[in-house]
Design brief:
Arc Repressor Mutant, subunit A; 17 helices; transcription regulation; AraC family transcriptional regulator; alpha+beta; globular; transcription; five-stranded mixed β-sheet; 3 domains; AraC-type_N; 51% helix; two-stranded antiparallel ribbon; single chain; HTH_AraC
């Protein structure tokens, strides 16, 4: 119940490579517990567990960690090889430079470069040619993987001064705010780039080959739910989910701040720094729990409504329709 949910446009884009290669994507979706009909609903979302299962299934079937979305396959085991090579790095900056070097050896999709510009370090991805990258899902996935790996290695939420993306903002552009932890995201840029402050490049690598084994076993879950997410919005979400699971209702901002040993006003400022607020985090948590519970037939609509703190079932139905564009019962049937 603690996992996030994934917007269906990302799901649809992640399958484009397999569909183009002739695989029966509807059958694969059903095997992973996902209704193919959901792909037509831009507003709909699916549970992360199902999405991760789908990613893993497509990678195995195609023997391609790139999901068929690059101009050539990225054979299974490629990321494992690169990750092991980076375990001997002593700092985050060293990891970025070695990551750049090894990614270029495979000559897939992007040309990777690292550039120092004053007080900033820029990790840049430039498309090798117009057909090198099939869609923007895989481009986003690559930069997420790079950033999440740094966060895991340093056991720190490594700040991003800015994220540049070389494609126009999609209809679901608001999702990118959460993908990159509230750090600034700019679309329609010349290159895909991650901007870091040089000061953070000295952060030590606190991981080793032993801990890497656990990290790789979780992949690609680490991209969406890091093992240690130190953002304040994530901590608040955790407190809300614990209250829901313990049938304690939805906690207030003040109650959550007390649990985190912070003054409410300080917590509000921290959330503003992450480009969000308490209401948004609470709404997302309720939405994701509702999606999870609707996938379990033992929960009645009335039970879900009560557990999520709605005064009556009709209020829950209205809220869910606003989140997903359909009623809870329609979603459950799909």
């Amino acid at each position: 119940m603690t996992d996030i949910t994934i917007a269906t446009p990302f799901l649809r884009q992640s399958l484009e490579g397999a569909a183009a290669a002739g695989y029966d994507t509807k059958r694969i979706l059903k095997e992973c517990g996902i209704s193919p009909a959901l792909l037509e609903q831009n507003q709909a979302r699916i549970a992360l567990d199902n999405f991760i299962l789908l990613q893993q299934r497509v990678m195995r079937v195609m023997n391609d960690e790139g999901l068929g979305l690059f101009d050539r396959p990225v054979r299974l085991g490629t990321f494992d090889l690169i990750a092991h090579a980076m375990m001997h790095c002593t700092t985050v900056g060293d990891i970025l430079r070695r990551m750049c070097h090894y990614n270029n050896l495979f000559e897939v999709g992007f040309i990777h470069t690292v550039e120092e510009s004053g007080s900033q370090l820029i990790y840049r991805l430039q498309r090798r040619h117009p057909g090198a990258v099939k869609n923007n899902y895989i481009a986003t996935s690559i930069v997420m993987t790079i950033h999440r790996f740094l966060c895991w290695a340093s056991v720190t939420r490594v700040p991003l001064a800015s994220v540049h993306l070389d494609f126009p903002p999609p209809e679901w552009a608001s999702e990118y705010r959460y993908i990159f932890y509230g750090f600034p995201v700019k679309f329609n840029q010349k290159y895909i780039e991650l901007y870091f402050d040089q000061d953070h490049m000295a952060l030590p690598n606190r991981q080793d080959v032993g801990s890497l084994k656990s990290y790789l076993a979780r992949a690609p879950r680490n991209i969406f739910v890091p093992e240690k997410n130190l953002s304040y919005s994530s901590q608040i979400r955790g407190e809300i989910l614990r209250s829901i699971q313990n049938n304690e209702g939805i906690p207030s901002m003040e109650e959550v701040a007390e649990k985190l040993a912070m003054h409410p006003q300080t917590l509000r400022r921290r959330l503003r720094d992450e480009s969000t607020d308490f209401t948004v985090v609470r709404t997302q948590a309720r939405r994701d729990v509702a999606i999870y519970m609707l996938s379990k037939p033992q929960y009645r609509i009335e039970d879900i409504s009560t557990q999520l703190g709605f005064s009556e079932s009709s209020a829950f139905v209205r809220a869910f329709k606003g989140w997903m564009g359909m009623t809870p019962m329609a979603y459950r049937k799909m």
